[in-house]
Design brief:
Structural Genomics Hypothetical 15.5 Kd Protein In mrcA-pckA Intergenic Region, Chain A; single chain; alpha+beta; Pseudouridine synthase; 23% helix; 4-stranded antiparallel β-sheet
Length: 291
């Protein structure tokens, strides 16, 4: 019997990360052949099981017919990384292109007050592996802190500080200058725990005033990409990420709806409207100059 765990099958089909799907299974939102699924269930897609999420039948497409896609998104501050928010706050998914019979899965998260590079993929298995700490994939951040930071404090961050969920240390930390009491540093971590960078600075009693992720692996925040916009990565970048976590290379060319290079930047309508509204406010706020 060629069976796999239910959450892995659904993740491979682009229905979310394994963690998200496990949460849906625990909440009783997934059924297999009319029976509510439980954690640990396995399925064989070759037997064409009837899998439903919230009552909606999932199409068991052949994985070989799908092309792994990855987006690089410039997350602005003020957006959350959930698909829906009871408080009505803006989410990162609002700006992404719509998909048919698939969904975007975020590779890791950034908290509401953090901006910068956020990757999305249609391959749930790729997302799951890229987020797993065993692969030790580097995440680099530009951090602005307030106040003087001593060499002793920097050495402490390199050696490690104790957090409530265990010890943590920066793989590297480099001073980038600053103005007055506002100092910039570039730091690298390899785990990506919740609010890890902020909590590490807080552990040495230093306040973070701005946090921007600028790199994930060797994928850097694209130059010229505006906040709230995305770019689709080309096949070389996609295969770099797949190779990082031991997945086979994507050999198929992108379809006409996908990007063939890393140069296609799509600016959503909402962003254009926001910029236009801002320019109009600025224009109407200017007072005429008396002669």
């Amino acid at each position: 019997m060629n069976s796999e765990k239910l959450q892995k099958v659904l993740a491979n089909l682009g229905n979310g990360s394994r963690r998200e799907i496990e949460a849906m299974i625990s909440a009783g939102k997934i059924s297999v052949d009319g029976k509510i699924a439980t954690l640990g269930d396995r399925v064989d897609v070759n037997t064409n099981p009837k899998i439903r999420i919230n009552g909606h039948l999932i199409q068991l497409r052949s994985k070989e017919k799908e092309v792994c896609r990855v987006l690089a998104y410039y997350k602005p501050e003020g957006e959350i990384c959930s698909r829906n928010d009871p408080q009505g706050r803006a989410t990162v998914f609002e700006h992404l292109p719509r998909l048919k019979n698939a969904r975007w899965v975020n590779i890791g998260r950034l908290d509401i007050n953090t901006s910068g590079l956020l990757l999305f993929t249609t391959d749930g298995e790729l997302a799951n592996r890229l987020m797993h700490p065993r692969h030790e994939i580097e995440r680099e951040y530009a951090v602005r802190v307030f106040g003087n930071v001593t060499d002793q404090q920097l050495n402490q961050l390199r050696k490690g500080v104790q957090l409530e969920d265990g010890p943590a240390a920066f793989k590297s930390i480099k001073a980038q200058g600053g103005d007055g009491l506002n100092q910039w540093f570039n730091v690298v971590i390899t785990e990506g725990r919740n609010r890890e960078v902020r909590r590490m600075w807080e552990a040495i009693e230093v306040q973070v005033s701005r946090l921007l992720r600028i790199r994930y692996g060797n994928i850097t925040l694209p130059k010229g990409l505006s906040r709230g916009t995305w770019i689709e990565l080309g096949i070389d970048s996609v295969n770099y990420l797949r190779d990082l976590v031991g997945l086979p290379a994507e050999v198929k060319s992108f379809t006409k709806t996908n990007a063939s290079s890393d140069k296609r930047i799509v600016r959503p309508k909402r962003a254009r409207v926001d910029r236009l509204a801002k320019s109009l406010r600025q224009a109407t706020s200017k007072k005429p100059t008396r002669k």
